[in-house]
Amino acid sequence: AGSPADLRDRLVDAAGDRHVWVVGGGDLAAQFAEAGMLDDVIVSIAPVTLGSGRPLFPRAYDFELQDFARNGAFLCARYSPVGPRSTPARV
Questions:
Q1: Angle, vertex CA 59, rays to CA 9 and CA 7, nearest 5
Q2: Which pLDDT value is given to residue 49?
Q3: Which 8-state DSSP code applies to residue 2?
Q4: Is the overall model pTM greater than 0.85, yes or no?
Q5: For 54-71, how does the pLDDT look when each residue is reduced to its tens digit (9 = 90+)?
Q6: 3 state DSSP class of 44
Q7: Taking the CB of residue 41, how many other CB atoms lie within 10 A of it?
Q8: How buried is 71 (Cβ within 10 angstroms: 0-12 exposed, 13-18 middle, 19+ buried)?
Q9: How far apart are CA 6 and CA 11, in angstroms?
Q10: Where would I find the beta strands (DSSP E) of 1-91?
Q11: Are 77 and 45 within 8 A, CB to CB?
Q12: Which residues, 6 or more positions from 53, have their beta carbon under 8 angstroms from its beta carbon?
C-alpha cells in the first residue's frame, strides 16, 4: 500500500544488489513511471488481444521499443518509458 515514491527506499533495500521486478497491471506500472522508477516495461502480447481491448496504461504515455522475442504463441516486447504524452492544444 502507498505510492511507489513513498516505498522507494524499502524496495531498493529489499532488492539489495538485484533489480526490482514489479508485476501488475498498467495502472501500477504507470504509477512507477510517473515516480521516475520505471526503467523497462516487458509486455507479453497474445494474438487474441490484438485489435481490441484496453490500453496498457490508463494514461497516455510514450515508450521506445528496445527488444522483442517470441515465446511460443506470444510476442514479448521490452520498452523503455519516454514519458507522459503531451495532449495537443485545442484550437
A1: 10
A2: 53
A3: -
A4: no
A5: 777 777 888 899 999 998
A6: strand
A7: 21
A8: exposed
A9: 10
A10: 41-45, 61-71, 74-84
A11: yes
A12: none
The one-letter code for the residue type at 79 is Y
Give the separation between CA 81 and CA 63, rounded to whole angstroms. Answer: 5
In which residue are the cell numbers 523497462 written? 40
For the chain, how far is it from start to end, CA to CA, in angstroms?
41
For the segment 33-42, what is each residue's pLDDT rounded down to a tens digit?
Answer: 888 888 888 8
Distance from C-alpha of 32 to C-alpha of 56, rounded to nearest angstrom? 14
pLDDT greater at residue 19 or residue 57: 19
Average pLDDT of the segment spanning 10-15:
90
Residues 6+ positions from 87 with CB-CB distance below 8 Å: 60
Read off the amino acid at residue 30.
A
